[in-house]
C-alpha cells in the first residue's frame, strides 16, 4: 500500500496537534516483566498480569482478591499474537492512545505495550512505525506500533521544543530552575533569629534618688 505525500503531511499535523500528557507511572509500567509467577502467591497458573497504578507495582489476581488493591486503579495485561496488550477502553482513561496501531481481541480493540520482536520491519518509512520502523497494518491511520514507541516519539519532540525543562516535584517549597534565588541574609542578623524579635521598648534609665526636704 502506497501513501501519497498529502496524506502523510496531514497525518503528521494531526500527530503534532494531539495533546499527550504522560502519567508518571507509565515508564515503569512499560518496563515491567509480566506473566511471571507471583512470589507472594506461588499458585499454579497464577501470574503477574496486573499493574496497580496507585501502588506502582506488579500484582496478580490473588493480590487483588486479598483486599490490598481491591479499590485501587488496576490495569490488566493480556497476551495476543505474541504481544503484551491492554484493552483500549482501560488504558485510554490515563493516556492518549491516538495513532497507535490497534488489534482485535475477542472483538474488542487492544494496543501493544512494546514492539513485538517477531514483527516485520517496513520497507517504506511512510508505512512503518516512526520510532522502531516496524510495519504497520494500516499506515494511513496509525503512526506507532505500540505505546512505548509513541511515548519515545513524544518525549523527543518535547525535548526539541522545550530544551530547558524541569522535573516536576510534589512540594511547591522545593525551588526549581525557574524559581528566583532567595534574598541575601542581612549582615549582623543572627541565624534563626529575626532582627525584629528584639525588645522594642526603651530601656529603663538609671534611677534618681529624691532630694531631702
Describe the fold and architecture.
The longest helix is centred in the C-terminal third of the chain and has 15 residues, at 147-161. Strand 4 (78-80) and strand 5 form a beta hairpin. This protein has a four-stranded antiparallel β-sheet. The chain has a domain at 78-161. Helices cover 20% and strands 12% of the residues. The chain has 213 residues and is α+β, with helices and mostly antiparallel strands. InterPro entries: PLATZ (IPR006734), Znf_B-box (IPR000315). This is B box-type domain-containing protein. Pfam families: PLATZ (PF04640), zf-B_box (PF00643). Residues 38-77 form the B box-type domain.
Main beta-sheet annotation: 4 strands, antiparallel
Quaternary structure of the protein: single chain
What distance lies between the first and last C-alpha atoms, to the nearest angstrom? 124 Å
**Strand order, biggest sheet?**
4-5-7-6
Rg over CA atoms, rounded to whole Å, is: 30 Å
SSE order: HHEEHEEEHEEH
Instruction: Name the helicity range.
Output: 10-25%
Q: Which properties best describe this structure?
A:
alpha+beta, four-stranded antiparallel β-sheet, three-stranded antiparallel β-sheet, 20% helix
In short:
This protein has helices at 5-17, 26-31, 61-65, 88-91, 147-161, and strands spanning 50-52, 57-59, 74-76, 78-80, 83-87, 102-105, 108-112. It is an alpha+beta fold and 213 residues long.
Amino acid at each position: 500500500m502506497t501513501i501519497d505525500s498529502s496524506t502523510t503531511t496531514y497525518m503528521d499535523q494531526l500527530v503534532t496537534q494531539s495533546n499527550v500528557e504522560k502519567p508518571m507511572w507509565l515508564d515503569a509500567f512499560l518496563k515491567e516483566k509480566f506473566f511471571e509467577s507471583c512470589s507472594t502467591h506461588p499458585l499454579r497458573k497464577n501470574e503477574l498480569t496486573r499493574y496497580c497504578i496507585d501502588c506502582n507495582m506488579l500484582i496478580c489476581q490473588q493480590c487483588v482478591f486479598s483486599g490490598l488493591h481491591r479499590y485501587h486503579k488496576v490495569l490488566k495485561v493480556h497476551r495476543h499474537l505474541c504481544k503484551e496488550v491492554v484493552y483500549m477502553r482501560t488504558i485510554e482513561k490515563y493516556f492518549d492512545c491516538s495513532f497507535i496501531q490497534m488489534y482485535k481481541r475477542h472483538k474488542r480493540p487492544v494496543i501493544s505495550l512494546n514492539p513485538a520482536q517477531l514483527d516485520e520491519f517496513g520497507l517504506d518509512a511512510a508505512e512503518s512505525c516512526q520510532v522502531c520502523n516496524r510495519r504497520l497494518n494500516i499506515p494511513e491511520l496509525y503512526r506507532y506500533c505500540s505505546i512505548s514507541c509513541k511515548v519515545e516519539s513524544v518525549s523527543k519532540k518535547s525535548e526539541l521544543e522545550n530544551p530547558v525543562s524541569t522535573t516536576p516535584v510534589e512540594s511547591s517549597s522545593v525551588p526549581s530552575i525557574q524559581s528566583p534565588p532567595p534574598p541575601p541574609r542581612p549582615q549582623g542578623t543572627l541565624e534563626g533569629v529575626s532582627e525584629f524579635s528584639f525588645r522594642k521598648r526603651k530601656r529603663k534609665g538609671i534611677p534618681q534618688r529624691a532630694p531631702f526636704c
